[in-house]
Structures are given as structure tokens and as C-alpha cells.
Amino acid sequence: MFAVIDELLQFYRSPLGRISRRLIQDVMGELIEDANGQRVVGLGFSTPYLKSLTQNAERVMALMPARQGAQVWPKEGPCCTALVDPLELPFTDSAVDLVVANHLFEYAREPEELMQELWRITTPGARLVIVVPRRRGLWAQRDNTPFGHGHPFSRNQLSKLLRAHSFTPEIWREALYLPPSNFGPVLKFARLFEGIGRLAGPAFSGVMVVRARKEMFPAVTRKRQTRRLVNFPEFAPQPAYPNNAS
User: Fold this and answer.
1) pLDDT, tens only, 15-72
2) Does a structural domain hold residue 231?
3) Which residues constitute the domain of residue 49?
4) CATH number for the domain including 133?
5) Is the pLDDT assigned to residue 213 strictly greater than 90?
6) Is 124 inside a domain boundary?
């Protein structure tokens, strides 16, 4: 079940949401490096990160799942947001250079179908940057943030999903070592938590951030869902009036 847009907006406006956005944004900035002249798509709820990370991009689009709802983005200028079905994205083949996915994979009903669709729309060598809650992390065990809902991942699970669909993980990073709490002293020393957590190892992180690159060879052939007609006698066509001509 997707987190609805009101819950996401409320979280990112809270003190904990603002500090978590900055911490994840720092890590994503290391992975994206430069989006100069590229066509960028944010999937899920990625708008908190798109503006600062893709300033020199050719174009940026924010696509949000219909079950989640959409936010008007950006606040200034033309709206670049659209409601979509993540399994049927409105792009031609090889149309996107960089995909940023946040609050998406943990809610995906068909992660294999999602990966095949991402492979279809991305150019050869395109980059895919994903943020997912870590399976054994504290943030995945608490339901007071959007990262505590849906299906969390281990590094091995996410790596297998990517490699099985022709995306090679290049760089792994972790973030959110602080406890998921709005308690003032916790937020005040958030950077300290991050520094100590990085020394202690990824086991204490709340989310994983991975950058993967699309390979040249084709992904797994997409399996289209086939529609089956089921015969229900009670729904069979019937005349409006009984025929008593016999």
C-alpha cells in the first residue's frame, strides 16, 4: 500500500523530515555528481531532491503513482508533475538518462515488472539512483515515517533485483543513522549520529542509496498480463422481455 501524498508532505515538513531530507540529499549528491544536459525523471516521491540535484539538466519530470497522489511541483514556473502507472510509463524507448526513485520500490506490487519498464525507458548507460528502507534498520521497524511502510530491502535482495534486469550496481551508500524521532536533542545531533554511524558500519543505517547503470544487453522479456474471460451465467445477456411467442 502506497503512502498517500498528504502523509508524505506532512513528514517532509516536520523537523525529522527536513533533517532526513538533507542527510539523504547529501548522499544522493555524491552519486549523481552531474546531470548537465540530461533528461531526468523522478519516480515515486522524489521532488524533495530533484531541484537541488538536477539544476543543469535538460529537463526534469516528476512522475507519481496514481495510488499515491501528486504534488504540484515546482512551486514556481510550469508544473512538471504527472500521475502515472509505474508499470506503464508515458515514454518511448530509451528516452531518459537518469531516474531518481524514492518511496517507490518498497511499495511496488510487481518489482520485476517495474524494473523491466525502467530498462525500457532508459538510454544505454543510463543511471538509476534508488532510495529504499534497509530491511533490518530501525527506520523500517517504526511506522511513524514513510520509510516504515511497505517492503524494505536488504542489499542482497536489491542487488539481485537490479542484476536480474540488466542494471549493474556501481556505488552503495547508507544514510539515516539517527533514530526516527522528533525529539529535539536527537535532531540537534543528527550529524553526529551520521558520523558515528558511518564508522560503526551500514548495519545501523535506516536507508540504502544505490546507483546502478543500465547494461547494453536486453533485459528480461516483459510478460504482459493476459485477460481471461470468465463465464458467469448470471451475467449472460438476457432479453428485456420474456419471449412467449412459442
Assistant:
1) 999 999 999 999 999 999 888 899 999 999 999 999 888 888 999 999 999 989 999 9
2) no
3) 5-223
4) 3.40.50.150
5) yes
6) yes
Domain assignment present for residue 241? The answer is no
Q: What is the reported pTM? A: 0.85
Rounded to whole angstroms, the Cα distance separating 140 from 72 reads 28
The angle at the Cα of 36, spanning 34 to 37, to the nearest 5 degrees, equals: 150
DSSP secondary structure of the chain: -PPPHHHHHHHHHSHHHHHHHHHHHHHHHHHH---TT-EEEEEES-HHHHHHH-TT-SEEEEEEETTT------SSSS--EEEEBTTB-S--TT-EEEEEEES-GGG-S-HHHHHHHHHHHEEEEEEEEEEEEBTTSHHHH-SSSGGGSS--B-HHHHHHHHHTTTEEEEEEEEE--S-S---HHHHHTHHHHHHHHHHH-GGG-SEEEEEEEE-SS--PPP-PPPP-----GGGS---SS-----
Into how many domains does the chain fold? 1
List the single range of 25-29, 211-215, 228-232 with lowest mean pLDDT: 228-232
Question: Which is higher by pLDDT, 52 or 237?
Answer: 52
Task: Look at residue 159 in the predicted model and tell me its pLDDT.
Answer: 96
